[in-house]
């Protein structure tokens, strides 16, 4: 009866006290339970086990005599209620899981269930722990009288101490129980102290394990409280995602650390509507097949735009004129634009790139509706500039993508014009018998312009002065601004301006930090800097991210020469390739071809060694590029005809970390799924008209032929102006 009463309650146990000549026998029994009641640290304790239905279901839950939810079909969470828990006690539950059949798969680590517990703290605050995953590696199997009985069974079911009549300690006796038993034995000599005066507290404080347990409990409590979800509006999914790569550990002494920050464009249901100005050279150097191919490329461009995009075409020879105003590309406008494009003819003999570019910039500057719209210029020219100087034109924040057509084009001028703009790249398109060659070069840039998910993108990095200072920032050819109050760049925050970002593109920055000397301190986790980014959406709304802390554990047993993380090393090699190409260009332009060739050959040798160690696919593309450059830098004539424009386009592509046409139609390291689709559409444009951006169906093509860099589902749409 007494056993039934105890088991019917939540956490109660039955104690058996035989008759004895010992006058303190019953007091000793009372002390067992009292020691636990006075040290309760958690109430309303519950443990919830949630299976992952695709991996496992729950067959059975054995929690002793503590109440548990029915298992049901095994796919639902099961909660066990333990009630109270004292400071030295433990509660347990055995969960039998039925793992799903994975006989046809390779061995892998499977998360079969999540465990979460909650309780009420001493101050009455509810605390919920973070879910703890249960992971199992799936693979081959590996070799792996009556009153006393009732009391023993009750003790094991509750996993707490009880007296079974033999006065033995038992498996669940805690330090407090033993102390109370000692006090009972001495009760005839001196009265036992109250709970407030127990000396056991001093022993626990002196115990290193108790101190460690208390510290851990406080830390977990803070984490659990911060993890409790707060009411508020639903969180929006940003079209930009930040990733961080750095060493997790660093020595306590002063040392340098490199951090790679990457901003990735994420697929979105909407894109920024495009305001595009196509600036086309119609001077005598474009006569014949070049102008015909330019017309085909313009028609391909017109057919890819939608009615939310706007287009203006500017033609120039020794002077510039607008072929049409900036207008929405509706069905009616598309037919009219194609007629005007077909009527283009070569006119003057001289080439005035400055006039054409200045006219295109003016068209965009005079826009009345600009919110959320992505302004861009695509400039195509072959001849050398005879009149004016296009370097004098300031495009502001408008990207200018230049296309040098044919050999001996003014690649240095066109490369400078593109690099002076925010995000523009130079493209080299050699003369070819392929009428779609120029259209495919246009499609490489157009694929990014029609998938823009963020504009005015900026990344700000702020160091913690007591922990670190900034030594160097490498962001390719994107502008870096130091927000220094008194000229001290090292301790100030740094902002990198990227401009626009498309859905499959990535922008990256390598930050070199100088960590301060902490030799005299204990090991600790240091937040050395914070990163935050902001951008404008397709609706023109400004979005600012939460600060992302960069934390490094500083300790004594860390090498003074840490191994650089692979993503950081790969990024440094990629940026070094751009610097190597620029150095080789300088030597070749000074007619030092042998020195230029040796610079590229030495870079190739180092790249081959790094490729064997890092095994990153982007290094394969970099190696192919260097091998191509070595063939184009063999003679001065070959360099001036093909090598220089190829090298300038390659350096521009690496500096912007975006795809550019280099003259060989090779995919390159920044080739995206959308570029591949547009390339194919441009190739087939003579057989069937390409679909507009609104009719593109990349989902089906991506599932059929995924490209390097991952899938990016896109449903083309844009906001009206």
Automatic annotation (TrEMBL):
Annotated VWFA domain residues: 275-445
Organism superkingdom: Eukaryota
SMART domains the UniProt entry points to: VWA
Gene3D superfamilies noted in UniProt: von Willebrand factor, type A domain
SUPFAM superfamilies the UniProt entry points to: vWA-like
InterPro entries the record matches: CLCR (IPR051266), Vwaint_dom (IPR032838), VWF_A (IPR002035), vWFA_dom_sf (IPR036465)
Location of region: Disordered: 152-173, 679-721
Annotated protein name in UniProt: VWFA domain-containing protein
Species: Eragrostis curvula (weeping love grass)
């Amino acid at each position: 009866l007494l056993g039934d009463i105890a088991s019917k309650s939540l956490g109660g146990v039955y104690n058996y006290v035989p008759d004895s000549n010992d006058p303190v026998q019953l007091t000793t029994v009372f002390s067992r339970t009292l020691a636990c009641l006075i040290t309760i640290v958690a109430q309303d304790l519950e443990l919830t086990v949630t299976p992952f239905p695709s991996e496992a279901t729950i067959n059975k839950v054995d929690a002793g005599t503590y109440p548990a939810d029915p298992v049901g079909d095994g796919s639902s969470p099961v909660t066990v209620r333990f009630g109270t828990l004292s400071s030295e006690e433990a509660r347990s539950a055995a969960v039998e899981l039925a793992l799903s059949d994975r006989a046809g798969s390779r061995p892998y680590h499977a998360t079969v269930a999540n465990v979460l517990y909650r309780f009420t703290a001493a101050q009455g605050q509810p605390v919920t722990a973070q879910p703890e995953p249960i992971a199992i590696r799936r693979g081959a199997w590996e070799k792996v009288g009556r009153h006393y009985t009732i009391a023993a069974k009750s003790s094991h079911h509750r996993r707490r101490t009880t007296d079974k009549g033999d006065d033995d300690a038992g498996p669940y006796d805690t330090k407090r129980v033993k102390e109370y038993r000692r006090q009972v034995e001495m009760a005839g000599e001196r009265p036992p102290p109250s709970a407030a005066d127990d000396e056991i507290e001093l022993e626990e404080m002196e115990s290193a394990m108790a101190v460690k347990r208390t510290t851990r409990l406080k830390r977990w409590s803070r984490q659990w409280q911060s993890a409790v979800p707060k009411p508020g509006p639903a969180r929006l999914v940003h079209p930009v995602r930040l990733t961080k790569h750095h060493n997790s550990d660093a020595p306590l002494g002063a040392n340098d650390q490199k951090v790679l920050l990457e901003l990735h464009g994420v697929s979105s249901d909407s894109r920024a509507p495009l305001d595009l100005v196509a600036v086309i050279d119609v001077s005598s150097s474009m006569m014949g097949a070049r102008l015909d191919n330019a017309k085909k490329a313009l028609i391909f461009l017109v057919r890819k735009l939608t009615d939310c995009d706007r287009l203006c075409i500017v033609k120039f020879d020794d002077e510039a004129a607008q072929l049409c105003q900036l207008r929405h590309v509706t069905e009616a406008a598309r037919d009219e634009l194609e007629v005007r494009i077909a009527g283009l003819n070569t006119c003057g003999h001289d080439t005035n790139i400055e006039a054409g570019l200045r006219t295109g910039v003016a068209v965009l500057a005079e826009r009345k509706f600009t919110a959320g719209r992505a302004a861009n210029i695509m400039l195509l020219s072959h001849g050398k500039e005879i009149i004016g100087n296009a370097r004098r034109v300031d495009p502001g924040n408008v990207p200018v993508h230049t296309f040098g057509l044919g050999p001996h084009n003014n690649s240095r001028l066109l490369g400078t014009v593109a690099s002076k703009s925010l995000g523009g790249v130079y493209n080299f398109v050699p003369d070819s018998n392929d009428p779609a060659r120029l259209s495919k070069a246009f499609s490489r840039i157009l694929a990014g312009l029609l998938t823009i998910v963020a504009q005015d993108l900026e990344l700000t990095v702020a160091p913690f002065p007591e922990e670190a200072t900034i030594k160097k920032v490498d962001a390719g050819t994107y502008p870096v601004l130091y927000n220094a109050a008194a000229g001290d760049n090292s301790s100030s925050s740094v902002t990198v301006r990227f401009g626009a970002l498309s859905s499959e593109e990535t922008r990256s920055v390598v930050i070199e930090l100088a960590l301060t000397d902490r030799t005299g301190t204990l090991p600790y986790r240091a937040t050395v800097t914070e990163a935050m980014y902001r951008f404008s959406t397709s609706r023109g709304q400004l979005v600012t991210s939460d600060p992302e802390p960069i934390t490094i554990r500083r300790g004594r047993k860390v090498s003074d020469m840490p191994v650089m993380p692979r993503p950081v090393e790969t990024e440094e090699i990629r940026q070094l390739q751009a610097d190597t190409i620029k150095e080789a260009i300088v030597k070749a332009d000074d007619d030092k071809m042998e020195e230029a060739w040796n610079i590229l050959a030495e870079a190739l040798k180092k790249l081959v060694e790094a490729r064997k160690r890092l095994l990153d696919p982007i290094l394969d593309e970099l190696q192919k590029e260097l091998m191509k450059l070595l063939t184009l830098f063999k003679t001065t004539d070959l360099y001036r005809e093909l090598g220089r424009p190829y090298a300038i386009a390659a350096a521009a592509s690496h500096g912007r970390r975006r795809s550019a046409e280099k003259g060989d139609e090779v995919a390159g390291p920044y080739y995206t799924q959308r570029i591949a689709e547009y390339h194919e559409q441009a190739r087939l444009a003579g057989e069937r008209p390409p679909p507009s951006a609104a009719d593109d169906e990349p989902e089906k093509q991506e599932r059929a032929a995924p490209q390097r860099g991952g899938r990016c589902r896109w449903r083309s749409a844009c906001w009206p102006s």
